Amino acid sequence: MPNSATAGNAAAMPAKRVDLNDIHSDVWHLYQLLDILVETLIDGRTASESMERAAALAWIARDLAEQTGAAIDNNFRGIAKGIPSQTEATNV
Q1: Distance, first Cα to last Cα, the chain
Q2: Which residues of 64-88 are buried (b: 16+ CB within 10 A; e: fewer)?
Q3: Residue ranges of the domains in the chain?
Q4: At what angle do helices 47-81 and 20-42 cross, to 10 degrees?
Q5: What's the CA gap between 21 and 89, in Å, rounded?
Q6: Beta carbons of 2 and 10 less than 8 angstroms apart
Q7: How does DSSP assign 21-81, residue by residue?
Q8: Are 17 and 76 in contact (CB under 8 A)?
Q9: Which 3 state secondary structure label does DSSP give 3?
Q10: Spatial separation of the C-alpha atoms in residues 81 and 28, rounded to whole Å
Q11: Gap between the Cα atoms of 23 and 79, Å rounded
């Protein structure tokens, strides 16, 4: 769910038609980002270094999760029915 700081960004972007492949990719990218975030927090750096890097990575993860959620919301019926994304439809 978007917060007031990011709601303007999501509203300005045009709706992109996505399918399950797109969501699958986004979720794995989010996993990789969160994995690096966890490593950053426990790698033994000074607290200020770790927190600065962790804050930057958390910001990116939050935005990616918001974009993925919005893509699912905007395309839920098509995803559920297995309708291909615009990219796949033009490659057929």
Answers
A1: 34
A2: bebbbebbeeebeeebeeeebbeee
A3: 17-91
A4: 170
A5: 13
A6: yes
A7: HHHHHHHHHHHHHHHHHHHHHHS---HHHHHHHHHHHHHHHHHHHHHHHHHHHHHHHHHHH
A8: no
A9: coil
A10: 22
A11: 9
- Retrieve residue 37's tokens: 């975030």
- Token readout for 1 is 């769910």
- What would the two tokens of residue 48 be? 């200020």
Quick one: tokens of 44?
Answer: 């033994």
- pTM of structure: 0.60
pLDDT in tens, 29-83: 999 999 988 888 887 677 788 888 888 889 999 999 999 999 888 888 888 887 7
Residue 91, token pair as written in the block: 């490659």
- DSSP-derived letter for residue 92 is -
Cβ-contact 64, 43 below 8 angstroms: no
Q: Is the pLDDT score of 12 beyond 70?
A: no
**Amino acid identity, residue 8?**
G
Q: Hey, what are 68's tokens?
A: 């993925």
